Structure formats: structure tokens, C-alpha cells
Amino acid sequence: MILTVTLNAALDLTYVVDALVPHRAHRVSTVVEKAGGKGLNVARVLSHLGEKTVATGLLGGRNGSRVAELLGDSPARMRTAFATIAGETRRTVVVVDGDATGFWEPGPVVTEAEWSSFVGHYTALLTISRVAVLSGSLPAGLPVDAYAVLVTAARAAGVRVVLDTSGPALAAALPAGPDLVKPNAEELAEVAPDADLSTVDGVLAAASALRGHGVGTVLASRGPEGLIALTPDGAFRAVPPHAVSGNPTGAGDACVAAIARAWRHRTPWPGALRDAVAASAAAVAAPQAGDLDTRTFLSLRHGVAVTEL
Amino acid sequence: MILTVTLNAALDLTYVVDALVPHRAHRVSTVVEKAGGKGLNVARVLSHLGEKTVATGLLGGRNGSRVAELLGDSPARMRTAFATIAGETRRTVVVVDGDATGFWEPGPVVTEAEWSSFVGHYTALLTISRVAVLSGSLPAGLPVDAYAVLVTAARAAGVRVVLDTSGPALAAALPAGPDLVKPNAEELAEVAPDADLSTVDGVLAAASALRGHGVGTVLASRGPEGLIALTPDGAFRAVPPHAVSGNPTGAGDACVAAIARAWRHRTPWPGALRDAVAASAAAVAAPQAGDLDTRTFLSLRHGVAVTEL
């Protein structure tokens, strides 16, 4: 079982309009409501790949109920076990007129008691999990080291843990020793300000600095050029056979999902990275974040070139 | 009792952002949720003016429940008696960065059975009403002559009826003989394409053409320059003592509310128009549609100049 955690889930609304013109009124031709949040995207990709998952996190209020209702349509292998909070789950509104314009509500404030209760709930779910994936931002009210608490609990339970977040939430969780982090370019630049991140050596230097904080593996995405991974078993580079065009939102979640799946099946690094690059590309080729074009995934995975650095 | 009807109510979301930039992501600093719809604005203004109202219309789904919950905070003299439909009440999102950018969801599709049931519900409410105010657009699924049905029922019950809508919904209701309509410039131009609507004579000509369809009174707003009314008792012009700056959204609803209140108290035309112009200006001076600055209302009403044309 793979456990995904979405502390700051959202009710995602997509509004299709002809053309967004500031300071005008727009008739929305199509409204799509979706259960949103990076951890839920990871769970959906895993479900597309045939894995059993439990998606947990925090949901509250009417928007939270709507998210739970939308998740009710998930396939049987994607179970949900969210904890309820008093605050209102945030909405995100994305206005699409060819390109996308996003509006993120600030989201709920989680109380101390709700957080303590969630940690208990999560710890119980760890007992049936092999891998945990912690994704996305922290809602207000949570301590900055909230992910450190969840990483520590996973390690204590013998569950491998992937952490995909950024900023202070990531920095505060590094000493707890997550098995894998996926920093963005900003974070890499922060730990290695002198490194040239356009080069493989520069990325490796930054990843090495991050690993020094106690992290198992550092995975650095290079967009259409694939991945660089600094792992306990060595450094690797994985490059897709060709570029895929589409929507890059959700590619990172698909990448993380593929790694979690590989760990669940004890696949060694070259194979895990091959899957991760193919899943990212297949997510780019799919219309919505959290979807995955399985044909693209299957056709690409054997063409991904993994080299040890 | 004054009955207000809002067939296409909405959950209004106001998102405050620093600056709206198309094709970027925006953090929303403040979210305001409000029960929206022109008929509800009319009811709120009436409530500010001390009148007892019943607000009816159609609500459905989670958004509808949220609207009902928000209406629960209304003062006791503003009662609500909405009928429930299966479809989901629409949301409107207005992004404010100094100026406003609006996104209107398409809204629910009302079934024939829901409409028949609502007509019965409305007819029952007419028995306790002196005046009915029908405001706003028609949701999908309703016949284009829906307002004609409601106007006919009001007249049969001896209830005076104000119709504030536009386009085909207005055109189809004219033969039913509403006691007052408040056409916009487009509608006036349509019935009298040769009239110069920048002149009082031009507006009177257009209003006269509209009255020919069976309407009691035609009220034409001239924005900061006040109102022109073609009534069964003659033609009038009402001009405010000075311009008021602020938010013009909701001024039309305040105007209609003042007329309904005047009818409820059998106030003759000059006084009714004085109130209507003062209420419009007081709504412009208030921060939110449906609010009314009562001090502005009281200070302006005696300064409004009403002349018979």
C-alpha cells in the first residue's frame, strides 16, 4: 500500500472562457470541479499504474465535503481516509482561455488539536503502508516543521518517505531525513548559490549540499531534459528518448508517484528513474494534472536512457 | 409584505488580489462569500429601509445550501422562502484589484416539474404580498415567457408587479402587463431605433413605444442624471441634487426597491421617484451591492427635484 498525504487539499474549479480581459465580465462556458492537491494527483497516477493507495490529508467545510464527494468516484484501488477539520478547504479557480490564469484562496487555519489528531490518524495508516508520499504546501496554523513530524513517524514505522514540498516547509523537514526530496531550482540555488544549475555538475553540487542535511536521495528535474538523481547508490542521469508536448502541471507528481511505485516493488535505481521520466512525460501528454497517458508511459519507458555519473 | 423573486440566485465570491495579470497565478488575500442575485439585493435594500420582505426564488446543490446559510444571517424582517431544485446554483467570482473582473458560471438547468412547482409556491406567497419584484436573468430550462407567467399570476392576485430583467425574458413578459419595467439603454434603443436616447424626448419616445406593449410604467435610468418615468399618471423627470461617487452596481436594485416600498405605502409618483433617485444614489455610496447608505438616502431624498414633463 502506498500512502499519499495532502495537507492543503483544494476544490479545483476550472473556468473556460473565450478570452480573459481584465476589468470585464466573462460568461464561463464550462465549469469543471475536481478534487485538487499534489498528493491527490500522486494517488491518481498510482491508481492509473494499477497501484493500491490510501489518500489522506485534511478536509473541512462545504468545499471539503465536495472534494470528498468527488473522490467518491475514484477507482476502488484508490481509497481515501481524510481527517475532518473545522476550517473551510480552499478553492482554486483556474481561468482557461488557451493559457491559464490561477487564483488560490488562502485556505483554512488548522488548530493544534486538529494537527495532533491528524498525526495519530496518519501514524495508524503507516502501519498498513510500505511507502508514504508527502506533497504540497502546509495550510496555515501548522508548525513549520509539520513535515519533519510526519517524516520522523514514517521512519520510525519503517516506511520509506518521499517529501515533495518547497520553501521553509522543506528546509525544516530535511534534518528528519526524508528518503527522497525533489527540490525546485530555487531551493537548489539556495543551498549552492555558486553552482551553475544549467550544467549537470552544478546540479550535482547542489544536490550533494542538500544530501548533507540528512536526505537519502535528491531528485532534480530538468524539465524536458529528464532527471538527475543523487542516491545512496550513486548519481544517475535519466533522459527521455524525445520531447513530449502538453501540460507540464502534474509532471512532478507523476514523477514522484513512479518513484513510490518503484520502491513499493523494490525496483533498483536505473529502472525507478526510467519509470519516473516516462511517467512525467506521460503526464505532460495527458490533458489534466493527475491523469496519465498510459500508452505514452509504456511506449517511453524502455527508451529512457539512464547513465551513472 | 413585499415579495422579491430571484430565479437565478448565485453564490457570489469576491477575491481580493494585488493586481490581476492574465496567465499568471495569484494568491487571493481575502475571500468574501455573499448570497447574490438582483432580487436578493432588492430585499436587502428594503430591509435597510425597514420594510418586511419575503425573498423567494430557486436554490440547489451545495452552492444553494451555502446561499441559504448566508441568508440565515439576514434581519428578521427579511424572510426567505426559496424553492429547492436539483441543479447546482451558480457561483460568480469577482476578482478585485482596484477594479473588478467578473466570471459568471452558467448556472443550473431547471426542469419543467421544478418550474411548475415553483409557480405554485410563488402563487401561495402572493396571497400575503402587496407588491412583487421580479429581478434578473432566467436560468436555463425555463420557458422564455417564465416572467409572463409570474406577472399574470401577480395581476390575478391583485399584487402590483415590478419586472427588472432584459433581453428576450423582458420582451416575452411585456404582453402580460407588468406594472413597471426598467429597461436598459439597449432595450430602449431596440423599441425606438430612431430616438436619440441622450435627450429627454428621445427617452420618452422609446418609453412610450414600450408602454404600447401593455406595461403600466416605464422607468428609464439616466445614471447620475436621475430617472425618467412614463406612468399612467403622466411623465416625470427626477434629478438628484448632486452626483454621488462610488460603486454603481446595485443602484438599479435600490431604485426598484424604493418604488416597491412607495407602492406598498401608496405614495404618489413624485414622492416615489424622489425615493427611487435617493435610494439609487445611496446604493452608489455604499460599498457593496444590496447595501444602502441610509444617511445618504435620508439627506438626498428631499433634495431630489421631480418635474412633470
Automatic annotation (TrEMBL), chains A, B:
<dbReference type="InterPro" id="IPR002173">
    <property type="entry name" value="Carboh/pur_kinase_PfkB_CS"/>
</dbReference>
<comment type="similarity">
    <text>Belongs to the carbohydrate kinase PfkB family.</text>
</comment>
<dbReference type="GO" id="GO:0005524">
    <property type="term" value="F:ATP binding"/>
</dbReference>
<dbReference type="GO" id="GO:0009024">
    <property type="term" value="F:tagatose-6-phosphate kinase activity"/>
</dbReference>
<keyword id="KW-0418">Kinase</keyword>
<dbReference type="InterPro" id="IPR011611">
    <property type="entry name" value="PfkB_dom"/>
</dbReference>
<dbReference type="InterPro" id="IPR017583">
    <property type="entry name" value="Tagatose/fructose_Pkinase"/>
</dbReference>
<keyword id="KW-0067">ATP-binding</keyword>
<feature type="domain" description="Carbohydrate kinase PfkB">
    <location>
        <begin position="11"/>
        <end position="291"/>
    </location>
</feature>
<dbReference type="InterPro" id="IPR029056">
    <property type="entry name" value="Ribokinase-like"/>
</dbReference>
<keyword id="KW-0547">Nucleotide-binding</keyword>
<dbReference type="GO" id="GO:0005829">
    <property type="term" value="C:cytosol"/>
</dbReference>
<keyword id="KW-0808">Transferase</keyword>
<dbReference type="GO" id="GO:0008443">
    <property type="term" value="F:phosphofructokinase activity"/>
</dbReference>
<protein>
    <submittedName>
        <fullName>Tagatose 6-phosphate kinase</fullName>
        <ecNumber>2.7.1.144</ecNumber>
    </submittedName>
</protein>
<dbReference type="Pfam" id="PF00294">
    <property type="entry name" value="PfkB"/>
</dbReference>
